TrEMBL record:
UniProt name for this protein: Fis family transcriptional regulator
Residues with 4-aspartylphosphate modification: D54
One MF annotation (Gene Ontology) recorded for this entry: ATP binding
Keywords linked to the UniProt accession: ATP-binding, Nucleotide-binding, Phosphoprotein, Transcription, Transcription regulation
Originating species: Handelsmanbacteria sp. (strain RIFCSPLOWO2_12_FULL_64_10)
Lineage: Bacteria, Candidatus Handelsmaniibacteriota
Length: 463
């Protein structure tokens, strides 16, 4: 690697010269120091990429030099040189930050190869730190788009839980951005420097899900030709995100419950336990509480997963955010599609605000990407929008509260109150506690009104 600055530190002049000549021929910029004190001074005066450091020297030994130079420059690559392979010294040197050892004398090719590997390792570490920094920046809370009251509530919950190790259950319809919330929790949490691993349970065939979660041993079943590491093992020390956890079979639910209880798991076909060291975040678009009541989802697992719940609202519940989201996607795609000056016409924006968005933010993003590709003269107009967006308006159930009710005031008030409660139950998919909070009244009072108007909250659970 040309232009790398290497400092050789050894109290044997002949060895110094021999290594210098070999590295000079390889194209390195080489400096030399014949004592520990001189090495520390040279590292203070000028930066080096690599230090080849003798372990045994008079006065200031190699370990003392290593400690001093690594304190001053933590990313400096130090390779120890020793004529006596001591395990104790090796362990201590690695603890202090040495990359590797070389027995002396070593050939120029061996030294060159070790330097290349060490620098590649350093560069990869720096690149990983940069990428993690960029990910933390990308998944900051304020990078999630939305200023509506419903999203402010989501942000408040995220702030409360992100700094903890708590298991989180994220609920919400498909396309609302549940994985984005999960990633933000990880990259703003205590495990942000470790891996975030996502598994979409609905995309894995039932017979393979346990293997994906926990791994398997070679020969554990037909087709298991080699050992496989599961996501619980791959995400070690990081965060594991299980999307659509409600799709798990009863057998997989039992295995997952055991992991949460015992904090260990077994690969399929193995009897050796493996420690489960992950933060678990799960998500679902199902009403798990109702599925527990119907026996479709284990109650004990539900309570293990639902230590802290964050409900991500549908786009219908946060219409105020539609202009903000639309302009966000416009900025995201107009450079890629070479529509740098494109804008959304007022008429097109009114249509976007009126559409019911059953596919939520994902549908909005796809609609705007398509419209941006088709628009002319730098403006998205109604004709550029998908027909499914142009030809629909607010559903009747969402405009019922705007209808003028006939009859006396008392009857009109009761009719409105019933429809208002039904509307909230539809928004929360039958979650009475959440609906009562949205209504701003106590749960007991809200429940009494449900009984009064003979409303069946369960029928809204799949809405």
């Amino acid at each position: 690697m040309p232009d790398l600055k290497v400092l050789i530190v050894d109290d044997e002049p002949s060895l110094l010269e021999s290594i210098r000549i070999g590295l000079d021929l390889k194209g390195y910029a080489v400096s030399m120091a014949s004592s520990g004190e001189e090495a520390v001074r040279r590292c203070q005066e000028a930066p080096f990429d690599v230090v080849l450091l003798d372990m045994k020297m008079p006065r200031m030994g190699g370990l003392d030099v290593l400690k001093r130079v690594k304190e001053a420059s933590p990313r400096l690559v130090v390779i120890m040189l020793t004529a006596h392979g001591s395990i104790e010294d090796a362990v201590e040197a690695v603890r202090l930050g040495a990359y590797d050892f070389l027995l002396k004398p070593s050939s120029p090719n061996a030294i060159d190869l070790r330097i290349q590997k060490a620098v590649e390792h350093r560069d990869l570490s720096v690149e990983n730190l940069l990428l993690r920094s960029q990910l933390r920046e990308k998944y900051r809370f304020d990078e999630i788009v939305g200023n509506s009251p419903a999203m402010q509530e989501v942000y408040a919950l995220m702030e409360r839980v992100c700094g903890t190790e708590s298991t989180v259950l994220i609920t919400g319809e498909t396309g609302t951005g549940k994985e984005l919330v999960a990633r933000a929790l990880h990259y703003n949490g205590p495990r942000s420097d470790k891996r975030f691993y996502a598994l979409h349970c609905a995309a894995i065939p039932e017979e393979l899900l346990e293997s994906e979660l926990f791994g398997h041993e070679k020969g554990a079943f037909t087709g298991a030709f080699s050992q496989k590491i599961g996501v619980f093992e791959a995400a070690r020390e990081g965060t594991l995100f299980l999307d659509e956890v409600g799709e798990m079979s009863q057998a997989a639910q039992v295995r997952l419950l055991r992991v949460l209880q015992e904090r260990e798991f077994f690969r399929v076909g193995s009897t050796t336990p493996i420690k489960a060291d992950v933060r678990l975040i799960t998500a679902t678009n199902r009403h798990l509480r109702r599925e527990v009541q119907e026996g479709q989802f284990r109650q004990d697992l539900y309570y293990r997963l639902n230590v802290f719940e964050i409900h991500v609202p549908s786009l219908r519940e946060r219409r105020d955010d539609i202009p903000l989201l639309s302009n966000h996607f416009l900025r995201k795609y107009r450079h890629l599609l070479m529509r740098e000056t494109a804008r959304i016409s007022d008429e097109a924006m009114r249509i976007l605000e009126r559409h019911s968005w059953p596919g939520n933010i994902r549908e909005l993003e796809n609609a705007l990407q398509r419209a941006l590709s088709l628009c002319q003269n730098g403006e998205i107009t109604p004709k550029d929008l998908p027909s499914s967006v142009r030809e629909t308006d607010l559903s009747a159930s969402e405009t019922d509260d705007l209808i003028t009710f006939p009859g006396p005031l008392r009857e009109a008030r009761q009719a409105f109150e019933k429809r208002f409660i039904e509307h909230l139950l539809k928004q929360t998919r039958g979650n009475i506690s959440m609906a009562s909070r949205k209504a701003g009244i106590a749960w007991q009072n809200f429940h009494q009104k449900i009984k009064k108007y003979r409303i069946d909250a369960k029928k809204f659970a799949s809405g």
